[in-house]
Amino acid sequence: MSRATLNCADDGILTINGEFGFATASDLLTQGQNLVNRRKELTIDLSGVTGSDSAGLALMLEWMDQFKAAGQQLHFLNVPESLLEIARVSNLADLLPLADI
Question: Lowest CB count within 10 Å: 32, 45, 76, 82, which one?
Fold first, then answer.
């Protein structure tokens, strides 16, 4: 079974480790919902992602909606090239708030 974890550091950077896709999206969505309203700004670091698919992109978009609705800022850092390519093909790449850290 595929597994993914979210780890939040004190500096407001959330790290995802493991698979970021169909097998883990529901669990990650639940874990991520606990973060809404905790911080005004959050950066999600995807450098620990070992595999991703379109469900990972859908999850990113869902988190964006949740944070926007809560009046918070969300940024993505170290997005895997394969995930960026899915976003480009889907004409969604320009919507992603990519961090410049």
Answer: 82
Count of domains in the chain? 1
Contacts of 58 (CB under 8 A, 6+ apart): 25
* 3-state secondary structure at position 32: helix
Across 1-101, the runs of DSSP E, i.e. the strands, are 4-8, 13-20, 41-52, 73-77
| pLDDT tens over the chain, length 101 residues | 568 988 887 777 899 999 999 999 999 998 887 776 677 888 999 999 999 999 999 999 999 998 899 898 999 999 999 999 999 999 999 999 999 76
In a domain, 54, yes or no: yes
> 14 - beta bridge partners?
8, 44
Residue 69 domain flag? yes
